[in-house]
Design brief:
- The complex is a heterodimer.
- Chain A is built from 22 helices and two strands.
- By secondary structure, chain A is mainly alpha-helical.
- Chain A has two domains: 221 residues, MetI-like (MetI-like fold, Orthogonal Bundle), CATH 1.10.3720; 277 residues, MetI-like (MetI-like fold, Orthogonal Bundle), CATH 1.10.3720.
- In chain A, strands 1-2 form a two-stranded parallel ribbon.
- In chain A, α5 crosses α13, α14 crosses α19 and α19 runs antiparallel to α22.
- The longest helix of chain A is centred in the first third of the chain and has 38 residues.
- Chain B folds into two domains: 165 residues, 3-Layer(aba) Sandwich (D-Maltodextrin-Binding Protein, domain 2), CATH 3.40.190; 148 residues, Periplasmic binding protein-like II (D-Maltodextrin-Binding Protein, domain 2, 3-Layer(aba) Sandwich).
- In chain B, 44% of the residues lie in helices and 14% in strands.
- In chain B, strands 1, 2, 3, 4, 5, 6, 7, 8 and 9 form a nine-stranded mixed beta sheet that branches.
- The chains are: A mainly alpha, B alpha/beta.
- Chains A and B meet through α6, α10, α11, α16 and α21 of A and α1, β2, α3, α8 and α15 of B.
Chain lengths: 556, 335
């Protein structure tokens, strides 16, 4: 009797483990490039470090820190407050602002940087007209310098705050109104309800958004380089290209990663003692309070400002330039670019979602430390600059290809050449390593909402696993899954550095074309492909927003 | 089973595609090279496959890919990167009378591993309202305190600046140039930012009085279809530095055939094509660069600027001193 029971539980453990083993291997596969980057730390590279420490390292660290703090602060400001306002209140245009606030997300950081510089720089039309009207010379007046550390903070905040907004809003929406009502009966005013109840409840979601923002900031190269800000990424590439030392460059990235890992760990630990479960499952329809007069006006301004500066203005600058060049730019090649960009983004997004689901479930069902650790580890990919990831991807695949080629040549007398390297496969793989963090975070958050008890109840009714997933999980998570899909879609659309290195022969994307023209300082010609990226990104962004609105329990 | 199947399919595919072709890793942007490659394809029937990107990442990629690399040619816009590729043993020797006849020997590698295809000069541009042409002398003079707060130049992460400083180290020695560079930095009107066109615009509107830029950027702006660019460019003048000394600093765009090129013949054929009169004329007419072939006549604005004395420093030295240049610029705080 005892023996039977023992063997049964052993079998189930084994069965479970085999699946789990497969999942662990899958996760490990995506860890390879990150491990390669971190592995660089174990190789000595003495001669460059003293030079870096003596000369530029403090600058890199200082600027990166200021950048992080600045972008973090403004993203919270621009993300959380509008999220709260559009969730709880009604004011002019609030129904449209709800999704429009997300639009800056479709704007790549380097493009907003180029367009603001084009317009507001000393040589741009605004200052030129100002000088012509007043007769001032360049030195006679003060004008904020676009290309500066402050400018970089502004640009990055303007395109990254939607991550915070998106997650904060999703969280506000699913909060039980009862909790808020109770807080009101306990004497909280609207401000207190926000500060003391809603905000702490939304903290995990907001932190996820914030960490995506910060990782994206750390990985940014295009903006800081163009603005002449010596940030950590500038250092990475300068060490690699200028000093021809890719090892130290990888070490710098690894240090960056350690920093991110420690930050994430500390945040998680500080949260551990606190429970954020929604205490009530009773939802009543969210009755939005109607704002009047000045408060309505202020609410409108607060929500419209980030949209104005993050999207409307830069997009209209681009549109202005595009008018003069579109007739030449819109040839057959342009449509090929568009098709390439869209299909890459779609395939990657789909794969990322499937993989994130596998990993998310493995994490949910397993108490094993290794699963949790691997998922966290993969998420670090988001903080690595695309170029560094690309090399981390090239190394193992080229090694595999070359070994296979050698083996085949030796035993069968024909070579396979580079089988995988140089194909779209490794480009997509690199995208996945970089962007899995986004889909994993979203999927995990969604899975967190489904209590394990639900599964157990379903099992008692005799439902199979597949049926439970189809009938219970998918409907609950639909909104989040769509969000995960579309976030990666937009990210891939914008991605540049990895694409630049890993794409196959004769294969270009909108981002590559935009970059090549903008880098040659041919802004007017770059405007058409840039605008195409933005437009292609808008549609999914609107879809994301709708799916979230509908995700509120009880939404009809 | 499935894998072998894919391999077989792939091999068949490879055989099918074995029509004459040549594969290029190009650090030169697509718009600045593709028209020539298309012309080559029309003239010879050889298919050209192209990836554009950054020279350093291509060098890394070639290193990682090893003997199976698909690339036959690495094309860069700077001599130092060609030298680096050679040092890493990524090129092979190419014996070609056509190349050697057209390209002067200081614009190609001593072992025939790489060849210059077009020339650009890093020149001084100045605002005629604020600067008398006679005040300008050469690069060394830019450290003079009379230029305090008057110079614009882009970041030292940029390869053109690295190569200029490397050439100065080669000419004058590292100690002298370190002092020169630190004084130059003191003369900057602003912290380096933007590209070369930005520096031209900055001079045009009075942010600074002089700037260091590659000549073709100024030409491109003068011929631009954007009015504001053209207007800015018209407000500045070009000065050829060091005409009584070594001559203006020049750099090349150039290429070499990779060590493991599968299409070596086609690759050489392409390089030879790029130095034909027709192609060389294209570099001058469309890209506003100078041909490496001294016989080519410049018809555009380049013709108006006239002939100038160019530095005949062996370009391999740009590669040799590249690292020293970067470290030095770090030390003097050239961002």
């Amino acid at each position: 009797m005892i023996f039977k029971k023992f063997s049964e539980s052993f079998c189930s453990l084994l069965k479970f483990s085999r699946l789990n083993l497969a999942l662990i291997l899958l996760a490990l596969f995506f860890c390879i490039p990150i491990v390669i980057v971190c592995g660089s730390l174990f190789f000595p590279a003495k001669d460059i470090w003293p030079h870096l420490i003596d000369t530029v390292l403090t600058d890199y660290i200082f600027n990166s820190l200021v950048l992080l703090i600045g972008v973090g602060f403004f993203s919270l400001l621009l993300g959380v407050i509008p999220a709260w306002l559009v969730t709880m209140y009604q004011f002019p245009m609030s129904r449209y602002l709800e999704w429009a606030i997300l639009l800056p997300m479709s704007m790549p950081a380097y493009i907003i940087a180029y367009s603001y510089t084009g317009v507001f720089d000393a040589a741009g039309p605004v200052q030129t007209i100002m000088r012509e009207l007043t007769g001032w010379e360049y030195n006679d007046y003060w004008f904020p310098e676009v290309r500066s550390l402050g400018g970089a903070i502004t640009m990055l905040s303007l395109v990254l705050y939607p991550y915070v907004y998106l997650l904060a809003r999703a969280s506000f929406i699913e909060q039980s109104i009862c909790v808020l009502e109770v807080s009101r009966t306990l004497g909280c005013n609207a401000m207190d309800a926000f500060r003391r109840v809603a905000l702490p409840l939304a903290r995990p979601a907001i932190i996820v958004g914030l960490s995506l923002v910060l990782m994206e900031t750390l990985a940014d190269y295009g903006t800081v380089q163009y603005f002449g800000v010596s940030a950590f990424t500038t250092g990475i590439f300068r060490t690699w290209f200028g000093m021809d030392n890719s090892l130290v460059a990888a070490q710098l990235s690894a240090i960056l990663l350690l920093f991110v890992a420690v930050f994430l760990y500390l945040e998680r630990r500080s949260r551990k003692q606190l429970a954020f479960n929604h205490t009530s499952n009773r939802y009543s329809p969210l009755l939005k309070q109607k704002l009047k007069n000045s408060s309505a006006f202020f609410a409108f301004v607060i929500c419209f400002a980030p949209l104005l500066f993050g999207f409307v203005l830069p997009a209209s600058f681009l549109g202005q330039w595009a008018i003069s060049t579109y007739s030449e730019a819109l040839d057959i090649n342009f449509y090929i670019l568009l098709l390439n960009s869209l299909s890459l983004a779609f395939i990657t997004a789909l794969l990322a979602l499937v993989i994130a689901l596998f990993l998310g479930y493995s994490n949910r069902n397993s108490r094993l430390f290794i699963n949790r650790f691997l998922v966290r580890f993969i998420s670090l990919g988001y903080a690595i600059p695309g170029t560094v990831i690309a090399v981390g991807v090239l190394i193992p695949f080229a090694w595999f290809d070359n070994s296979l080629d050698e083996f085949l040549t030796l035993h069968f007398n024909f070579g396979s050449g580079l089988l995988i390297s140089g194909t779209l496969f490794i480009l997509i793989f690199a995208y996945l390593v970089r962007f899995l963090a986004v889909s994993i975070n979203t999927v995990e958050a969604a899975l967190g909402k489904i209590k394990l008890e639900m599964d157990e109840v379903a099992k008692t009714t005799g439902m199979s696993h597949v049926r439970i997933m189809r009938r219970i999980h998918v409907p609950i998570m639909r909104g989040s899954l769509l969000t995960a899909l579309l976030l990666v879609f937009v990210d891939v659309l914008k991605e540049l550095p990895a694409t630049l290195i890993l794409r196959p022969f004769n294969f270009n994307t909108l981002a590559v074309r935009t970059f090549e023209l903008a880098n040659e300082e041919r802004l007017a010609e770059a405007a058409v492909p840039a605008l195409a990226i933005v437009i292609a990104g808008i549609i999914p962004v609107i879809m994301i927003s709708n799916s979230i609105s509908r995700s509120r329990p009880g939404y009809e | 089973m499935k894998k072998t199947f894919t391999i077989i399919i792939f091999l068949i595919f490879q055989q099918l595609l074995n029509a004459a072709e040549v594969n290029i890793y190009s650090a030169r942007k697509e718009t600045l090279i593709k028209p020539l490659l298309d012309q080559f394809n029309r003239d010879t029937g050889i298919k050209v496959n192209l990836i554009t990107g950054k020279a350093d990442t291509f060098i890394k990629r070639l290193e990682i890919e090893g003997k199976n690399t698909p690339a036959d040619i690495l094309l860069t816009v700077d001599a130092a990167r060609l030298v680096r590729a050679k040092e890493k043993d990524l090129f092979q020797e190419v014996i070609s009378d056509a190349l050697n006849k057209v390209i002067p020997n200081y614009f190609r590698d001593i072992d025939n591993h790489w060849f210059g295809l077009s020339l650009r000069s890093r020149v001084i541009i100045f605002s005629p309202d604020k600067v008398n042409k006679r005040e300008l002398i050469d690069y060394l003079d830019l450290a003079n305190s009379k230029w305090r707060g008057r110079i614009c130049v882009r970041s030292s992460s940029n390869i053109y600046n690295q190569s200029l400083v490397a050439s100065m180290i080669a000419r004058h020695g590292i100690n002298k140039i370190e002092i020169w560079a630190s004084r130059l930095v003191e003369n900057f009107a602003r912290s380096p930012k933007g590209g070369d066109r930005d520096q031209i615009k900055a001079v045009a509107i009075g942010v600074c009085d002089i700037a260091l830029v590659n000549n073709y950027y100024l030409a491109g702006m003068l011929e631009s279809n954007q009015e504001y660019e053209m207007n800015a460019a018209k407000k500045v003048k070009l000065f050829w530095p060091d005409q009584n000394g070594h001559g203006a600093h020049v750099n090349i765009s150039g290429a070499g055939v990779t060590k493991y090129a599968k299409n070596k013949e086609e690759a050489i054929q392409l390089l030879e094509y790029l130095v034909t009169d027709k192609a060389q004329q294209w570099y001058s007419d469309i890209n506003y660069e100078y041909a490496v072939n001294p016989e080519i006549k410049n018809t555009t604005i380049l013709g108006e600027w006239g002939a100038f004395k160019s530095d005949d420093l062996n370009l391999s030295l740009l590669g040799r001193y590249n690292r020293d240049a970067v470290l030095l610029m770090d030390r003097v705080g050239w961002k």
